[in-house]
Predict the structure of Glyoxylate/hydroxypyruvate reductase.
Amino acid sequence: MTVPKILVCRRMPTEVLKRAEAAGKVELITQPESDGERAPSRSWVLSNLPGCAGAVICLSEKVDASFLDAAGPSLKVISTMSVGYDHIDLPLVKSRGICVGNTPRVLDDAVAEVCLLLALMVTRQVPVATRTVREGEWPNFPWTPTCFMGPSIAGKTVGLLGFGNISQSLCKLLVPFKPKRILYTTSRERKFDREDKYFASLMRDGFPVDRIGVENEPEPIELAKKADLVFVLVDLNASTKHIVGKKFLEAMKPSAYIINASRGGTVDTAALVEALRNNQIAGAGLDVVEGEPGIHADHPLLSADVRDKVALLPHIGSGTTETRQAMADMTMNNLLGALGLREEQGKEAE
Ligand code: DGY
């Protein structure tokens, strides 16, 4: 019996695949240890794919025709260590009968925490406050009754663009901050699970968590008009690219903030920079940006007239130790599962 070859594009915090290798179930193709966790070059990926039954990837590995052609007919499964899969051409992969695994649910709480973190950072003026301290300017800005003031979440309207698992985890974190209400949009028929004990108790207590009613405008624009804090938590696809664009930003209140922890492409960066420059909105908290990680010091979001209104993080949403381990385990188990080699499956068969 030939042992399936697996291309592992990144070192990940898990032992699952190493155990499978030690048990002789798979043969792993990995980058040299010295390359650490860095993304492999495209040429390394393409030259090592031929003959592989599986590929373990991250967000930076684009799965397109050239990837699949390089792999050839042996490829049975692609497993990505991410919940998002906009880097994978799904229809094409499906048309070739290849399975795809991703890592939903295990990162909901971690990403929700970063959404809350960004909301607090940007409303409480942390970008300008920390810059003031770091640059030795604190002595010039002693405490005054109005220094570094910003709005509280209490009493405000929260808007969630998208109402998937991460949005629902975020709701649970936000409610103790006492927002006035939470509005959401969703493209799916599924609203939140009304059987969920937490939401059931919110409803019973009359806390308003509502899908925004469609009035004259599309749902996102209605939400933009009403929300004080907008969280972007949609998948990136053709219909959500630049869902936050010029029109959306113009509809927002000048006192409102936007938080994005989904994918950079959901927000039109040029339009956002303009909106911040023109005081059309109050600020932005971003864990993701179009074109990341190529954001250099001269990026417009870091320019002197914009940077103090922006909390910018380098895509750390899922980055708790526990979450990244769970994602890595799930990535490897998805791969082994698709090949019929999962540890538990082996045990069941005994
Ligand atoms: C994902 O999983 O899609 C995140 O963006 C990275 O954790």
Remarks:
- The CA atoms of residues 183 and 193 lie 15 Å apart.
